[in-house]
Structures are given as C-alpha cells and as structure tokens.
Known about the structure:
This protein is 41% helix and 15% strand. The chain has an 8-stranded mixed sheet with strand order 3-2-1-4-5-6-7-8, sandwiched between helices. Helix 1 runs parallel beside helix 2 (41-52) and helix 3 (67-82) packs parallel to helix 4 (113-129). Helix 4 links the parallel strand 4 and strand 5. It has 308 residues and is α/β, with parallel strands linked by helices. The radius of gyration is 18 Å and the shape is globular.
Amino acid sequence: MTEPGTVLITGPTRNLGRHAVLALAGRPEKPDLLLVGRAGPDLTAVADEARALGANVREIGCDLANLADVRAAAATARELLATGAVRPLRALVANAGVMSADTRRASADGYELTFAVNYLAHAQLIGDLLGSFAAPARVVLIGSNTYHANFWRKLLHVAEADWADPVELARPATGEPSMETSGVAYSNAKLAILYYAHELQRHTDVHVSVFEPGWMPGTALGRGAPAAFQAMSRALGRLPGVSTPQRSGPLLAALAVDDKWAHLRDGAFVVKDKLTEVQPVAHDRDRERRLWEATAELLGERSVGRRE
C-alpha cells in the first residue's frame, strides 16, 4: 500500500480471515487493523497475535447475523477513524461467511441465514462506511466459483446458483432441509456478491474487487454441515494442490493492500493470485440493478450506498 492506513476485516478469527489478519500485521508498512467479528476469546486471541507483530489493532465485537449489531459496528469504526485512534480507512475486506445446513434458519432480522451473513450484513456495513474511506481505497469481497457448475463440481454434487428475486432469496425456506438446498443458498449468496460488486462500483469511487480463495475443504465455513460431510471435507483438504487458509490468507491480504492490485475495480474477480473472467451469468445489468433496489428494501431506511 503506497500510503499505509487502516484495513477493516470481518470474520478475522478463523481460517482465511485469521491468516489474512496475521499477514497484514506482519507487513513492513504495518496497516492499522479494525477486526470486526463475534466478541469473545477468539477475537481477543487474533488481535493479540496481530499486536505481537507490531500492528495497531482495534477489536469491534459484532454478530453479523444481526443488522443492528452491524450498524453499531460501523458507528464504532467511524468514531475510531474520526478521532484518529486509527489511520484513514484504505481497505475493507468483507471476509466473514457462513453456509447454513438448514435454510429454514433465520437471522435476527428474519432473513435466511446464509444470505443474511454473506451478503446483507456486508452490504449494510459497506453502505454505512462509504463516506469514511480515504482515497485511494478498496473494497474486497469474498466470492466463490460455486455460482456456476463445471465437471468437478457436478461430480462432487456442488450446487450451482438458482437465481430468484433477492427478496425471495432472503426468505427462509420451508420444507425439509438438505445439503442441496444449503449449497444452492450459498451459491446464490456468492452470485449476489458478484452482482453487488458490479453495481457498487457504479455508486462509488472506491475500487471494488472480488477474491476467490480457492476450494478450502474442512474449514469452519461448513461447521453446520453433517458430521460425515465435514469428515469428508477434512480428508479432501489433505490432497495436494487444494487451497488452505495458510496459503490463501496472505493472498487476500495482498489484494487489499499491494500496489500490484491497486488498479482493480468494477468487481474484478481474482482467483487466488490470478485475474480471471467470470462466467456470462455473473454479468446481468437488470439483476444488478434489482439487487441494489431490493437490498435497500431489505435493509430498511438505510441506503446501501449512503455517503456520510
């Protein structure tokens, strides 16, 4: 980063997020860090590890399944920035994610949990902080190639996205839960992130990109999945060439701060360390516009792209 400032990252306590935090804290330029995650010993532990590496770190306790918590976290971040407790905000990494095994589960606001945490919470946080960025600045969203099927995903029964109106996607399911419906919900949320990245760029000068860390089986993302599925994922995670948080975390950190990536915008999609074209389905102007409108409806009176 040419001018070191502050990086805010959600989901900093485990796996990809934790290793991204430690990579940022270990950099020579030492950006300040705002760690937004569930309050508790895990958040305290990663903050202490980052401080031990010499970084100025502030913890912001937040349950991303509760939009009131997200708004409060944004308010805390704005106060820390305004008072000079941390340097100007140069990057926001929307890393937190969940894959609920039961799509009937609802967030505190009544939305399907996977869509609420992966997409809506970050749209709220980013919207509340758009006016707080100091140029040059970046937003990095976490994507996934699961939004479309290929040979290997079909072989492993990884569900691709099945797009619907965002208000419908946000509604908890009825009927019996299954891994297939859970996978579809996750892929829909990741396709929403791609659409949002493209539309967000039309509303801000902050550079927007999307990071795909590669397939990381066995991480905490699937902790709500059946035990047999988790055991299989851990076994697959030991195969050569499979991504790991230890390898992908520093790549995510680099996307947030390295000069190499400073030119990225318009929702550019980076798979590990390679700029990659998304599938045609991931570019749809009508869906992107509708998602923006629906997100404002779902978040209530707060604008998804409010400038302070």
